[in-house]
Specification:
Distance between the termini: 67 Å
Largest sheet: 7 strands, mixed
Structural class: alpha/beta
Number of helices: 11
Helix content: 40-55%
Bound molecules: 6-O-phosphono-beta-D-fructofuranose
Strand order of the largest sheet: 3-2-1-4-5-10-11
Radius of gyration: 21 Å
Order of helices and strands: EHEHEHEHEHEHEHEHEHEEHH
Strand content: 15-25%
Number of strands: 11
Length: about 325
């Protein structure tokens, strides 16, 4: 029988659980009679032929590791027609007939264009801490990042309380407030400033006017990093200017949110999605992202998954406001 390889790659920002997904894709593919090739450095490695065959042993002892053993990159070359042509030629040379792409919005957008241009079966797995892919309740890496943030905020709370300070804690999430909103709820923070609300209201004013310090001597405000809003530093500067009586500090959590051993939830999610990706290919599905909705596996067309507007549950904003009085 002619060799039929499935190629697997990770692309964009690394997320905890990507290794568990690589393991699941590899083992499930082999279990179902396929061969697997690992593609290094995302689309860059596809263009430059940084590829090697993966056996079940190659994915041993990785389920508990953060980052990605395949490494990752944000490829500018794959954004070009010439880059994608090179990638297709390498796929033919390597006898790879289908691709499993583990990554976020940009990575799945690339997969969509590539699949359409070259009629290559592409299946995506949502791998990003931002949780911003439409059509799936959770993305791989989100739960781990959320837990990391909560652990950090618990520590910051000690100082905030001891010194009677307002802390602005900046978290990742680019254009999506899932990490900020839910970490605020889980850590008992007083407010979250999220990109989804940036244009509607002055979120700082709302927080202050809701009665900061009516009953509390310290506060924690979680701020989504966002080019639109200016981040934690911007809000801290505003408070220093507009309310000089308050003692303000800033903590930017940065990339420590992305690393670390994946949570059990992320390992299970990645394992389920990896297996479902192979099932999708067996069924002849293509151009779809595998997701999970209400605990069920779902197949979401790429065009839907990469829509920018995954809605944040507005009741979470009300919940945080009510519980932070
Ligand atoms: O998309 C994942 C993410 O972690 C975002 O939350 C963040 O804005 C971005 O990646 C940071 O990217 P980089 O590691 O390339 O600076």
């Amino acid at each position: 029988m002619e060799d039929k390889y499935i190629g697997v790659l990770t692309s964009g920002g690394d997320a905890s659980g990507m290794n568990a997904a690589i393991r699941a894709v590899t083992r499930s593919a082999i279990c179902n009679g396929f061969k697997v090739k690992g593609i290094y450095r995302g689309y860059e490695g596809l263009i430059n032929d940084e590829i090697r065959e993966f056996t079940t042993q190659d994915v041993s002892n990785i389920i508990q590791r953060g980052g990605t053993i395949l490494k990752t990159a944000r490829s500018d070359e794959f954004m070009t027609k010439e880059g994608r042509k090179k990638a297709f030629e390498v796929m033919q040379k390597e006898k790879i007939w289908a691709l499993v792409v583990i990554g976020g919005n940009g990575s799945l957008s690339g997969a969509r264009i590539f699949a359409e241009e070259y009629n290559v079966p592409c299946v995506g797995l949502p791998g990003t801490i931002d949780n911003d892919l439409y059509g799936t309740d959770f993305t791989i890496g989100y739960d781990t990042a959320l837990n990391t943030i909560v652990e950090c905020v618990d520590k910051i709370r000690d100082t905030a309380t001891s010194h009677d300070r307002i802390f602005f804690v900046e978290v990742m999430g680019r254009d999506a407030g899932f990490l900020a909103q839910n970490s605020a709820i889980a850590s008992g923070a007083e407010a979250a400033i999220i990109p989804e609300d940036q244009t509607d209201v002055d979120q700082l004013e709302t927080f202050i006017s809701r009665g900061f310090r009516k009953t509390k001597n310290s506060s924690i405000v979680i701020v989504s990093e966002s080019p639109k809003g200016g981040g934690a530093m911007h809000y801290a500067d505003r408070v220093r200017r507009e309310y000089p009586q308050y003692n303000v500090r800033v903590t930017v959590l940065g990339h420590l949110q992305r690393g670390g051993s994946p949570s059990a939830a992320d390992r299970i999610l990645a394992s389920r999605l990896g297996e479902a990706a192979i099932q999708a290919l067996i069924q002849g599905q293509r151009n779809i992202m595998v997701g999970v909705r209400n605990s069920e596996i779902v197949y979401v067309p790429f065009v839907e998954a990469i829509r920018k507007d995954k809605p944040l549950d507005r009741s979470l904003i009300k919940l945080l406001n009510e519980l932070s009085i």
